[in-house]
Amino acid sequence: MSAEPKIGDVRFSDSGEVEVFDGTAWGPYRQIPDDAGVVLRDRTEE
Amino acid sequence: MQSLASGRSGYSGPAAGLWLREAGVSLWNQMVPQVIKEQFWEQRSRIRSFNIATDQDIPPWELLYPLSPTEDEGFLVEQFPVMRRVYGQQRVAAISLRPAAFVLARDAPAEAHAEVSMINQRLRAALGTGNGTLVDGVQSLLELINSGEAGLLHFACHNRFDASGGGSSVAMADGDFTPMMLTSAATGHTLATGPLVFLNACRSAGAVYEYTRPMGWASGFMAAGAGAFVGTLWAVPSQPAREFAEAFYAACLDGAPLGQAVKIARTAIRRPGDPTWLAYTAYGDPAARVAAGSSP
Predict the structure, then answer these.
(1) Is residue B205 part of a domain?
(2) Taking CB atoms and an 8 Å limit, are B117 and A18 in contact across chains?
């Protein structure tokens, strides 16, 4: 990973949690309320 | 199954459960020869685990529901640990989880981030390791796979499956990762530590014909030397997918054999009318256990 993080880059924190770079700082991935019902791990229909 | 998993089938609750049961009985009736059925009922009380050896990866064997006029003990996978094996598969009794690498694509669902955090933290605590490696590019992933030093490969992501010919693909930062890209790894058996590969995405154990044989993630990773592969046969909702992984790793790290760990994880996510608990399929030796002391 480059020295300058890009938006969406991920890393582990010292405590072992995934952190995401939002453009200004690293932090935990923020859960977005799901309006579309069940989220499948599938991109076949995209 | 896709529509049942996403709640769009029109079936719900007990009706969906009945549909699943009848689908399982139908698979049993149509796919299992009569002589095998008779042997199954004769030997059932002595069976400790079930290994399905097949070169035809297409049927969803985990859906099998043995039924006779006098006997009904439920789905096969709720009766015994059930694992698949591919022909020529090497026997790996100790599954390597170290060093751990996680594939977390940029479009991964929110639950996938929580899943990777949980597994990484659990491995750190149980094995005394540092953080695993996060991989988001095809190039870096293939370098790792072909290095001969890869341990656990856990994918928490979306999988695209094109049954009309393209097969599976995982979108990564520098292009799609496909089973064909494991050809060199299979030739050199580069997964030399016999690691676990867990592709926790939709239909990640699906296969399509490539030239002369079925090709998919399961056969590709097992040919490359994986000690075990866990994937799915149809679309899985992200939340139970995370819960399955959580229960599976907890059981493995508590010392459960692989087949039993899969069975425990299925039970943990079983809900009326939701087929996700049957979607998971595992390849390898059901008696294999995690190699807690494996290096580095």
Answers:
(1) yes
(2) yes
